[in-house]
Amino acid sequence: MKSLQTLALVSAVIAVPASAQSDGETPQPVIVVTGEGLAVTPATPAYDTQVIEREELLSVPSGRIEDALASVAGFQQFRRSDSRSANPSAQGATLRALGGNATSRALVLLDGVPMSDPFFGYIPFSAIAPERLAQVRVTRGGGSGPFGAGALAGTIEMTSADAGTLGAFGGQVLVNDRGETEASATATSRLGAGFASISGRWDRGKGFWTTPEAERVPHSARAAFDGYSVQVRGVTPLTDAIELQARGLVYRDERTLRFEGADSSMEGQDASLRLVGRGAWAFDVLGYVQARNFTNVVISSTRFVPVLDQRNTPATGLGGKIELRPPTGERNVLRLGLDYRKSDGELFETALSAFSGAVTARRNAGGTNTDLGLFVENDVTLGALTLTGGARLDRYTIRGGFYTERDGAGALVVDDRFADRAGWEASFRGGALLRLGETASLRAAAYSGLRLPTLNELYRPFVVFPVVTQANAELGNERLEGFEVGLDVTPRETVRLSLTAFDNRVRNAIANVTIDTNLRQRRNIDAIHARGVEASAALTFGTFTFDGAIAYTDAEAQGSGLAAALDGNRPSQTPKWVGGATLAYRPAENWLFSATLRHTGAQFEDDLETDILPAATTLDAFAQLPLSKGVSLVLRGENLTDEAIVTRNQGGSIDLGTPRTVWAGVRLGF
Asked: 43 CB contacts (<8 Å, ≥6 apart)?
């Protein structure tokens, strides 16, 4: 009922002003709404930026947004699994090998709204359907603009498609060789000078075996998944220079991993309002609210019965931003603003005896984090040279933290109340872009950044049997310092080449540190230091196109004291080499054939480099063949060589990623 009420409220907000535009007797001027935020600034190319266009998003062989992002060199999740077979809490997004735990170190925005879960920090990738988007802009390196306190490793900005892009109706239905289905539909209507759209997507299937055949037991289970999302969005002009945007998103995703009964779920209800002004005094005012939840059942790998029921993890995200761009002349862009984000949540879980099934403990933990940021940034263009500089000041609080535990009889065993903390943190970034004629440009940038520990890292312990990872309420903030230099070359319209060298260091990095056999704790280590090179190429030869990207990163953890054992080691889940390339053939309009080769280098499961995840190379394919006007046949192939993709290796207990999978279906667009 809450989900339906949220959608109804957003629809009402959209419809009322839109209808007012068409009821008046006086003819209205022609107004074109975009549904986007303010235009990117002239200095945006000074930072290492890559754009994924809509056609690329729609031709991902898996149909998942996280696999579209994998085309960006340096993007990674904590594990190699996608959102059909991963535990949701492990789906953090990061860039430049600055991982090491499951929390997002990259800021992911959808229409300007941060998408990370308020409690865990993961991204609900299954709720972000590629077919709803116009484009994705990925900026690697620390950010100091709006919501910059989350942009430690970079920013991933997703923009929803407008009415002209979506058309009146679109959709697709596909089925794969295991009988799993993917279905989506979008309907868009003009409302006066604005528009409203509603879209839904439903993915379900029995899943594949994540456990190798030789290790399966009668209680082993396929990675079953069943998830839906519904989004309502509308845009209406209030004047010829001001537009109101509203969006509501409702989703739920259920998954099973490894054993029967090892079920997890995540759900959310998001709503946002945004006012964008494109006049002389440009502005962007945004407010949002998010209600999220997560559940998870842990099954014993020896007795195959529930031993932990993380039955409820309600969390709320609340925030917004105000950005103002005063008229400062054609060659100068000044940005002033503030933003606020509040994350509130708690965990309710029950521990069970593997022998009797009796309750052994009931735990409750949680707290509240807030961040208020003030930011200023200025770009100035001096002929072929563009300079930019920005500063950000954050007032953060970590408060209300607690952890309680009661035994099976209800007696209080632990009752911890943690001291409130608050402080100020300053971040900076600056860059320069020098255009060398029409065909090349040089760029350089330096930056610092900030990330608060999540409520999950502070207060929630967890178990991936047999390893126990403890929380740590004393965790400090992570700080990034980095710089980069790059060269972009476009000798002709059909050739784009880019090369970037970078050096990034995350001080006080939060990592899962091994402190005893099968026991880890989240701790601030001295640093994660990542140095590397990113290269990309986009080439067009008639009806053929080639897009490729590769990243080499020399990353190491730096630790002392109890974390000295990991000093000099590569951070867990961090490969040295990541790369991919897509060759596409477009013989005629709406025809497309493409193949994607992707390689992920070897990486370690843990901080002590004891368990290795071998390198994996996969081949994917996509084909779209028009059948009639507005109707196309779609064929997709994932991991066509059936490469064994090891996603987890804990003492020889292994999980595998997506095997060879072939999809076929129909796509509609009118």
From this structure: 333, 379, 386, 387, 388, 431, 433
* pLDDT of the residue at 30: 58
For residue 355, the domain's CATH number is 2.40.170.20
Q: Could you give the number of structural domains in the chain?
A: 1
Beta bridge partners of 424: 395
Q: Taking a C-beta distance cutoff of 8 angstroms, is the pair 604, 80 a contact?
A: no
Predicted pLDDT at 147: 86
Nearest to 95 by CA among 80, 112, 78: 78
> What pLDDT shows up at residue 34?
83
Of 568, 538, 657, the C-alpha closest to 73 is: 538
Residue with tokens 């900005």: 157
Pick out the chain residues at pLDDT < 70: 1-30, 100, 464-465
292 close to 315: Cβ distance less than 8 angstroms: yes
Domain of residue 80: give its range. 2-669
Separation between Cα atoms, residue 587 and residue 90, nearest integer Å: 40
Q: Hey, CA dihedral for 39, 41, 45, 47, is it positive or negative? A: negative
What torsion, rounded to 10 degrees, do the Cα atoms 241, 244, 245, 248 define?
A: 180
In the block, tokens 């009322």 appear at 16
| Strands annotated E in 493-591 | 495-507, 510-516, 519-524, 527-541, 544-558, 577-585
Closest of 457, 499, 508 to residue 481, by C-alpha? 508
Distance of alpha carbon 337 from alpha carbon 37, whole angstroms = 14
Measure Cα distances from 506 to 196, 361, 529 in Å.
Answer: 42, 37, 6
**Structure tokens given for 528:** 């994660």
| Sign of the four-CA dihedral 17, 23, 25, 27 | positive
CA–CA gap between residue 33 and residue 233 (Å, rounded): 13
* SS3 of residue 91 by DSSP: coil
Helix or strand holding residue 21 (H, E): helix 2-23
CB of 341 closer than 8 Å to CB of 319? yes
| Residues in CB range of 494: below 8 A, 6 or more apart | 539, 540, 541
In the chain, DSSP finds a helix count (H) and a strand count (E) of: 5, 39
Collapsing DSSP to helix, strand or coil, 538 comes out as: strand
How far is 100 from 482, CA to CA, in rounded Å?
Answer: 18
Is the peptide bond prior to 466 cis by the omega test (within 30 degrees of 0)? yes
pTM greater than 0.85 (yes/no)? yes
Query: Using CA atoms, how far apart are residues 348 and 363, in angstroms rounded to an integer?
Result: 6
For 271-284, b/e burial (b = at least 16 CB within 10 A) is bbbbebbbeeebbb
Distance CA 570, CA 581 (A): 26
* Dist. CA 151–CA 157, nearest whole Å: 11
pLDDT given at position 12: 40
CA nearest to 398, candidates 339, 477, 462: 477
